Structure formats: structure tokens, C-alpha cells
Amino acid sequence: MTGFVSGVITAMVTPFSADGVNFGEFGRMLEYQIEGGADAVVVLGTTGEPATMTEEEKTEVIKYAVKKVAKRIKVIIGTGSNCTAKAVAQSVQAEKLGADGILVVTPYYNKCTQAGLFEYYKTICAAVKIPVIAYNVPSRTAVNILPETAEKLASIPNMAGIKEASGNMAQVVETMRRIRGKLDLFSGEDFLNLPMLAIGGKGLISVASNIAPAMMKEMFDLVEAGKMDEANAVQDKLLPLEDACFYEVNPIPIKAAYNMLGFDAGVPRSPLTEMTEENKARLFAEMKKAGLKTV
Which residues are catalytic? Predict the structure, then answer.
């Protein structure tokens, strides 16, 4: 299926305090996204650190996000797992709690075959009625959705797209050729946002839009209007900032960046660590250059 969502989709962080999830700050962050023009948010994706959250915390985060957003934009919940049964259970729960759609990462660690990938997504899609976006990020999962498998996934009725973060633009172009008009393609790597949109991508699922949603939306709208020179000018301004958001493993830098904007994102949960002071200074400098209002 196509047309579920398009535009700027922010992969949200989960702010933590010593007591657990900081829901007050999470609410402020969601409002910041809506005010900045984001079209949707992904909650409990990789950036949200679900791997270090309890099941109770994840349930409460979904409930809170759905209620806070109140249908103003779409709420997409990350529900993938390396166990198909667990992914199904998490997907069913997300649907029951009011998610507009789900983002399902490929099974990690187990290293399944392409046939296993298809069966994984087919089983999850059969368990829910809401749209499902597959998430291809082989650098984290050691599994890669090949173009021919992406084309096969298009036969599943509620499969709504693929978030591509393989970093292999040749593969992405071939995937787009095979799924065009059948599934939507979403950029999953900020530095490739513009080229993916240029070949027909419907949106970007972005880490950097946590702190710069308005700039991301401006770039997307310019591409949609066919104003590529202007879109490139915005992306040229964004690229150093996007690079800074990955000085250390995600979501370490983006949490530090939120704190520099005056939010209380806290720090990542162990085994992730707080950003080094040297990299914080470099990140801060790029945020200032990009025109963000730091504190």
C-alpha cells in the first residue's frame, strides 16, 4: 500500500530521569515537533532506547504519546524484535493502544534469510490492521532487506513502506525501482534525505529533526515544490548539523542536543554513556551555526 504518511517523521528520543520516563519533558518534545511542522513521530524506535526500557514503561509511553498528540499528527510505534512472536505481541498492543501505524525493524542478531524476513513481516502484518513500515538498518541488525525482497513485501496488503538505512545508495535506487507505486520509501539516514526524496521517497524518518523539525520540513516542502536548488541550499546547511548528531552512537548526541535547546532529555541508559565534553562542544558549535536557539 502507499499513501499512509509522508513528510518529516521524527524518530523521538525518550527522556529519562532518575525515576524513569520524564513524561513532562516528553510532552514538551512532542509539542515542539508539532509546532515545528513534523508530519509524524516514531515512538520507541532505536532513538527511543526501547531495548533498555521495561515493558511497563513502553506501554505507558505509547499511551502517553497517543493521548498527547491527539491525532494532530500520526503516531508510529516501533515494535520490531528478533523474536517474531514478541514482535507480533508488541504490534497488536500498539494497535490496541491507538497507534496510527508501526515501524518494524528487521530481526537482529539471529541473522535470518531473505525468506525468513518475508515470513516475519507477513506474520506481523497479518496480526494487525494498521499500516506497517519495515525498517532496514543492517549496520545494527546484520540483516539486509534486498531489493527483490522489498518487491515481494509489496504484495502484503497493509505493508506501507520501507525505512531505508542501509547506506547503500545503489541498493536504494534499485529498491525504489522495484517498489515504486506499490510501497513508499522513507529515508532512514539524514545525510541521504535529499537524494532519497529526489528518487521518489515519500518522507524522511529522521534523528536530526528532533532538534530541527522546521528546517527539515522546509527542505522537504522545497523538494515537493520542485525547487531543488533551494532544497539543496537548506540541506547544505543541515548536513554539518546532521553529521554532529552522529559524532557518537545514536541517541547519545541527540539527547545532548535537546539539553542544549533547554529541554531535559537526561542521559542515555547504560550501556550507552553521556556524550564527551569535547564532542558536546563540537555539537554545540554546529547547532549555533545552523541557527538553533541554544541555552
Answer: 135, 163
